């Protein structure tokens, strides 16, 4: 029996090269709508210390009508469940009338006796519409006096490491494993993604619109049907017609020399029940290993065998 993805996908595999314009010469044009609002953004980083110890650090930025804040949690990347390093997450509410500590530090002791220090300065942070600051801030996580994670743009000063009171020269190897975004509003979603450490930052747009059989957008015809479009750098990489019947599916695109699997599940947009969340889910995931490229010499492929997979998940709640 075929799985549900292959049953409902119009085209099981579609390959798109970001530098090739033959797939679609027309840019993906945004409708006259403001993009949906990001409610929270979570980034999961793998930290490899100089001792080869690996730790997962999840950094979550959230925003609501009543608060805006930051949460950092720690986990173990080992397959051994007994080697737990978890601890209560570090939380910071930067928009509370009772507690607004936008600059400071905190010492945290993990379950494996590792000592973690978190330093932050959000006093001059600037934001767009989302919960994640875009400039004027820094967040630094140190593990056992080793610089583990540095986020922000205020880290290039010579005096920066003096601010965090350390003379260490050890900086851990950091890889971004996944990014998760929760959005709400209409059916237009805009974000940015870097699919590999050496790749460029791409503009990603997901849009659900209606067309009639003749292809007219936003037509008042009674035969209008929903269409899903995904664009990277303003070029359409996939188009899914009759979305109410193809509500789950997957296609493959080729970006920055990598195969990226794109999966969607918009079932709850059309068949929502009281018990369901009403969220659509979109996931971009890179492939690693020898199957990560369409063609490669064996020697080049061997160099890329340890490439870290990256995934971007978008949870989209349609409010109307």
UniProtKB/TrEMBL annotation:
InterPro entries the record matches: DUF868_pln
Domain of life: Eukaryota
Name by which UniProt lists this protein: DUF868 domain-containing protein
Organism: Lupinus angustifolius (Narrow-leaved blue lupine)
